[in-house]
Design goal:
3-stranded antiparallel β-sheet, 14 strands
């Protein structure tokens, strides 16, 4: 494995309170995508805050309720909406790994988020066992999208992240070699110039290293 590198990004601002996060999701229409009443988001956030689980937590919608293809366009940067790369039409088939246990509930919380800058220039194949050894669990793709939705500053040039908690399992049982990531488009190739600086959902090979991609993870998921 490569040596870890120092974190060089700016300190990220704190996540908004859960009540504010709920209103943000409602404003973006995520409740409609999920087929849930807006009141359910508000009630969930209020209950979590009352239970003392709100500080530093991220409110997420289960991917079965709100898939990545529907959430990605809700991201914005420099006034440009997010998008999924054209060669990932199967983005919604990427599902959590067996070791990534999502709560059996439409809404849940992610605790202890970290962008994983210190693992930049590691491959996904190298990062996954290292995260497991640290008792951390990699984010699923939709969880990463929710993070950027609530905290846009988490996505910055040269400090973006992979969401290797989501993988595609092929018909023979083997994992597809692609691993999802969220970064900022350069507006080149099939992205088109109009998408320069837009948030981008794409993929990288599981065995490749990238100096500008960390590995987003959390310490826990709770309902």
């Amino acid at each position: 494995m490569p040596e870890t590198i120092p974190v060089t990004s700016t300190v990220l601002p704190a996540l908004p309170p859960l009540g504010v996060q709920a209103e943000r999701l409602i404003e973006l229409g995520v409740h409609e995508i999920a087929g849930l009443p807006a009141a359910e988001f508000r009630t969930f956030a209020e209950a979590a805050e009352s239970a003392g689980a709100g500080e530093g937590a991220l409110l997420a919608v289960h991917p079965d309720q709100a898939p990545a293809s529907a959430l990605a366009p809700l991201l914005h940067r420099d006034g440009k909406p997010g998008f999924v790369v054209t060669d990932m039409p199967d983005v919604d088939v990427f599902a959590p790994l067996e070791t990534v246990a999502l709560p059996d509930a439409p809404l849940y919380l992610l605790i202890g988020l970290d962008r994983g800058d210190q693992m930049a220039n590691w491959s996904p194949d190298e990062a996954l066992p290292a995260l497991t050894a640290q008792a951390r669990t990699p984010l699923a793709l939709t969880e990463g999208i929710h993070w950027v939705m609530q905290q846009p500053a988490v996505l910055e040039r040269n400090h973006c992240f992979m969401t290797i908690g989501s993988r595609l399992r092929k018909s023979n049982g083997a994992l597809d070699a692609r691993t999802p990531a969220i970064w900022i488009s350069n507006g080149t190739g099939r992205d088109c110039r109009e998408r320069r600086n837009a948030p981008k959902v794409g993929w990288c090979w599981a065995g490749n290293r990238h100096t500008w991609l960390g590995f987003a993870s959390a310490t826990a998921r709770r309902v």
